[in-house]
Specification:
globular, single chain, alpha/beta
């Protein structure tokens, strides 16, 4: 029985590829290119299969296969948050499936998560690729094999015929959610590995809120944190073969960011990335002595001719294959080089293409990834690594990623167009609010609301009110507007406890707060207040954009300062909450619990540094900002906002410090090392950290 194939190619697919060919070949000499997609027609897929099976120099395939051979069960269980059984229906989607030899190991491991075969398999695998006959062939071979017998009633295999864009559009439009028998109870069970999500009900209403505050205040503006759409099946995307390298750095970030992984849902991405390996090794991998890669690339010429209406329009004798690797850019490029001056006519249009002797036509690129490249890619795509597996030669990695409930974007170096210490954007505010809401509304249970997270601090409820109150006070002061109601909040929440650095038992002046739990404002009223204050911030940005309010350095400073204030409190509140790990604080929902055993095995196998310490310095270090607040009122500087770097008062004034030569250990003290010290030399001298759970 033939596998089910869903045809996704648009009616204009052939016209689109033809237009890309014509546009690419119409460029000036030295800039011509052909679409990489041409390499993966039916013949190209077969030739690529030959490369992966016969060209031992092509290491990326073998490296990933080795990882899957040794770690596939661990990978699949980590994909399911440590579960050894599948509790709900789910979708596996592979982008650019190819011959399925590596994938077959994953499918077999998935089948082992299903207790017993049934008439309707709980797991459905979709292979997305360009050529329907190749999808039918490879799925048919799987079905007819012993692996296929193991998959029956456990894992259904189907095909999607189209491009990446076609497939992702199909998913976003709900094309994969064809099962009408989704069990919402089982669906919620499948999220158990993400942390304690019980505070959020299936209707999206926070039962934490109702248990914190039994009062029913009408006309509430408060919207609880959204939760994953339980009507959508869990989705796990496979993107193997280092295929992401075919995208430019910018395109790769955009592509991964567009994947339909629901934030904080348990959806995952398993992706293969090739490392920044030796130049000669990479160039040989893409130009094997047997000529298999050459034949694969030359087939792209035939595919280009076919798309334009004449398979033989590009004479093979006029072309040769060349490749090169740029170690600095970590980019491999594949070219067709013209062996002579010649002209090619497009049979479907008046277009003519002139090629000079030795002119290069680019047809493929493959970026490689350093450690820094990989983490920059993930953070830029709003993805979080759960675990990573590397082959024995350390040439390739498989990364398991999730889209978390929120992210902390990495700081970027200041440029003339961007300064990380400038006025925050509305997008940055939204990211910060998502983080703050997760910390306060999802990690603090009702039992902790009226408790102090640590000594010499206010109760947890205080911090719910302090952040919007501080923001509101400074907005009112800036705009000369009334405070947001209830105005009484400014007397309760303005200032927190700030112990004296020299004598922590003494505190600076702070707000007078209620002594009894019942005298505090209700949580609902605080959250409603917070919503209204945040609306003030967004309105201010809208007024600036519409020129109703002039953007001055003073306005920008208030926005920067209040943003930093909230970010600082998010950090310090997390520090305080971790002291209550095991005695109240909940793990953040929407983040996969780290696979500790798997991580420990990797850490234990990592080599120790060759030397215990590293010597640094002497060096000259520049500290501080040139940011005099008095300049805000100076007409020469008042509207100088773009690119300006703001700082706190004690940071003003750039100064240069000479740092002498010193040595420091490569690694911080590990938990294991500290525990060993606690048991022996430190016995009776140190205590177990409050954040450790016995």
């Amino acid at each position: 029985m033939s596998p089910q194939i869903i045809q996704l190619h648009s009616e204009n697919a052939n016209a689109d590829i033809s237009a890309q060919i014509v546009a690419g070949l119409s460029r000036p000499a030295g800039q011509k290119k052909l679409p990489t997609m041409l390499l993966y027609n039916e013949r190209g897929l077969q030739l690529y299969d030959d490369i992966t099976t016969k060209a031992t120099e092509y290491y990326p395939f073998g490296a990933e296969e080795e990882i899957l051979k040794n770690k596939v069960d661990e990978i699949v269980q980590t994909m399911h948050h440590g579960e050894t059984r599948v509790f709900t229906d789910e979708i596996i989607l592979e982008l650019g499936a190819g011959a399925l030899r590596k994938t077959s190991r994953i499918l077999l491991s998935l089948s082992r998560l299903v207790n017993a075969a049934s008439t309707r398999a709980p797991i459905t695998y979709y292979a997305l690729d360009l050529e329907e006959r190749e999808i039918v062939r490879t799925l048919g071979e799987i079905s007819a094999s012993e692996i296929g017998e193991s998959l029956q009633g456990k894992v259904d295999t189907k095909g999607l015929c189209g491009t990446y864009d076609d497939g992702l559009k199909f998913v976003l439009e709900g094309g994969l959610n064809v099962n009408d028998n989704i069990n919402p109870v089982l669906t919620s069970l499948s999220l158990s590995g993400l942390g304690d999500i019980s505070p959020i009900s299936s209707t999206g209403t926070s039962t934490f809120i109702s248990s914190w505050d039994s009062s029913s205040e009408e006309d509430s503006d408060y919207s609880p944190i959204s939760t994953p759409d339980e009507a959508q099946l869990p989705l796990h995307i496979l993107f193997l073969g280092s295929s992401l390298g075919n995208f430019s750095r910018e395109e790769a970030v955009e592509f991964l960011g567009s994947l339909p992984l629901r934030a904080g849902s348990g959806d995952t991405l398993l992706i293969g990335l090739d490392h920044n390996n030796d130049k000669a090794e990479i160039e040989e991998a893409y130009n094997d002595p047997q000529g298999l890669t050459k034949e694969f690339i030359m087939n792209g010429l035939r595919a280009a001719g076919t798309a334009l209406g004449n398979e033989d329009m590009f004479k093979q004798k006029n072309w040769e294959y060349v490749n090169r690797y740029d170690s600095g850019r970590r980019q491999h490029e594949a070219f067709l080089r013209s062996k002579c001056d010649h002209r090619v006519e497009d049979p479907s249009s008046p277009a003519q293409f002139l090629f000079l002797k030795d002119e290069l036509v680019k047809i493929e690129q493959s970026y490689k990834f350093s450690e820094s490249d990989a983490f920059s890619l993930f953070s830029g795509s709003n993805l979080r690594p759960i675990q990573r597996w590397t082959d024995s030669s350390k040439r390739c990695s498989l990364w398991l990623l999730e889209r978390p409930a929120f992210v902390f974007p990495p700081l970027k170096r200041p440029t003339t167009r961007h300064n990380p210490f400038g006025m925050p954007t509305t997008e940055q505010w939204q990211q910060l609010w998502s983080a703050w809401d997760c910390i306060t509304q999802r990690m603090i249970p009702p039992s902790m609301l009226y408790q102090k997270p640590i000594d010499l601090r206010h109760i947890c409820l205080f911090y719910f009110g302090h952040i919007p109150t501080f923001l509101d006070i400074h907005l009112s002061r800036l705009l000369q507007e009334p405070h947001t109601e209830p105005e009484i909040f400014k007397y309760i929440f303005e200032r927190g406890i700030d112990p004296n650095v020299d004598d922590p038992t003494q505190c600076h002046v702070h707000s007078t707060v209620p002594e009894k739990d019942e005298d505090w404002p209700t949580l609902t009223s605080i959250l409603q207040f917070q919503t209204r204050v945040r609306a003030r911030v967004l309105k201010l940005y809208a007024d600036i954009d519409s020129n109703r309010i002039s953007l001055t350095r003073k306005v920008a400073r208030v926005l920067f300062m209040t943003f930093e204030h909230e970010a600082h409190h998010a950090e310090t509140l997390l520090y305080m909450l971790i002291q209550r790990a095991g005695t109240g604080t909940l793990p953040p929902p929407g983040f996969a619990i780290p696979p500790w055993r798997s991580l420990a095995a990797i850490w234990d196998s990592a080599p120790f540094p060759k030397t215990k310490t590293v010597t640094l310095g002497p060096a000259e270090v520049t500290l501080g900002h040139d940011d005099a607040e008095t300049d805000d009122m100076d007409p020469l500087f008042a509207k100088d906002v773009d690119g300006h770097e703001f700082g706190w008062d004690n940071e003003h004034g750039v100064r240069v410090v000479q740092v002498g030569k010193f040595s420091i250990e490569w690694r911080p003290v590990t938990n294991g090392e500290f525990f060993e010290f606690y048991l022996r030399k430190g016995k009776g001298l140190v205590e177990i950290p409050a954040s450790w759970v016995k």
